[in-house]
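Recall that a protein's primary structure is simply its ordered list of amino acids. Everything else, from secondary elements to tertiary packing, is in principle encoded there. The following example makes that idea concrete.
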Amino acid sequence: MSNLLIQDNENIIIYADDLIKDINKDFFEANKWLQIQGTNVIGSGRGETIFFSHQNLKCVLKHYHRGGMLGRYIQDHYFWTGINGSRSIREFKKLNELFAMGLSVPKPIGARVKRSGITYTADLITAEIKNAKTLSELIAADHIDKNVWEAIGKCLSLFEEKRIYHPDLNTNNILIDESLEVFLIDFDAASRLHEKIGSSNKTLNRFHRSLKKTYLQNKKEFSESDWKIILSRYSID
């Protein structure tokens, strides 16, 4: 995969030219796709995700939104610190790296930052993972296959082997397809494990809390025996 860069007075775009040839700034505007029949919109905790098709490519468009207290006042603007520090381009490059390692992540298609003075907004387009739902959605629908916990543990173990740290692992950024293949998403803040002391345990603890919270929100109780299955496939050095 080779990556090309497009830049004008406002926009900086990086994209995989082996996947798409005619990309431009309009590709990162939700309104462009919402006018086309067949486009799907899925809400999330921080805005909406747009699912659209272009030629024979099924894509997912994510607009970055702030979380936490600051997100109440500044929804989607970030302070500009340079192209390599921008969230969408950073995640595009990280996904490229992880995909090349053979890890289960979405294939990156393009990323944009749109500058406005000392701030910018960010967008990312990835390839859609066919027939996949978040772990949170499966829990809510009570569609948890008994083998899913082993599949999750195996997936996390593969990331551990590559020393990849996901700082916000939760039930919303774990995707599972119909064949029970597990994918991880939302990697803009990911780093190498050796850069964070104790990151492996923090990742597991955060995910464990997220599981219990998701089950509680759906008026269900998470079985600790299922957690033990995950741990049985997840090795910590």
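The longest helix spans residues 199-217. The chain has two domains: 3-127, 133-233.
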